[in-house]
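Quick start: load a record and inspect it. Here is Probable cytosol aminopeptidase:
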Amino acid sequence: MVAHSRGNVLSSILDEDERDDILASFRGLADMSLPNATHRIVSRSKEHRQIIAVSLPPDPSPGDLREAAGAGVRAAGEARSVVVDMPHANAKEFEALAEGAGLGAYRFTAYKSGAGAATKVSVVTGVPAAPVKRVRRILEAQCAVRDLVNTPGGDLGPSEFVRRIRSLADDAGGSAIDVEVLEEEELRAKGCGGLLGVGKGSQEPPRLVRMEWNPVGARVHIALVGKGITFDSGGMSLKSHEGLADMKTDMAGAASAAAAVQACAGLRIPARVTAWLCVAENMLSASAIRVGDVLRIAD
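Running the structure step on this input writes:
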């Protein structure tokens, strides 16, 4: 995968014949002047090699590079291997390219039989000490969030969500992350009437999860709060069919906060990071809260 800008093919590995093939194929393609436009070319000089050109603005920012790399890798479909060969001058730009390419290769295949192998992505770079480990940790965290958000609510109720949060903490290594789960009785004792009310209509009780990375010598304390409603039907105020379609994603805030703590621990960020995750399932049943009920919530 290469970049195209100002009528030039920006590549450090393609030979002159391949560059000419690409430029010739652009004739008549007005959309290649648009940001992140992609065009696939089959190389005449290298058998079986397909080249994907992605358009870049004249002076691309790291954000432009991230989006272009993602667009190019997505355009490659289910290719076994993609080499990203795009211009970048420093570690920040390398990180943007690598992150975009990695996210572009993401596939959710948990419910597919016979899913092919994941696409292997390589980034050509001349940047010394490129932050490969940092990019890998950030990608792992983002892909973990995507996996959780893509999982149907029927397979990701409160208990399963909490199990996966614990798994994220374990993946950080050793006892780096402390996880505390407040169950229904503890929530009642602490006056957490709001969370208890939201989860009242579900067969699964709600939980409040505290997830913390607290390294020795931490200089600051960062607090995160994540909404973890594994499915939000609206309860007695039932949503429309269109409104219900994406309500499995109502736990994305808690998933993002949990993954952020995992990434901070994996990268050994010198900050104390505490995430509070409100986990519940908002369902309609005979036990659900009624419109007009009073919920008692501690200060």
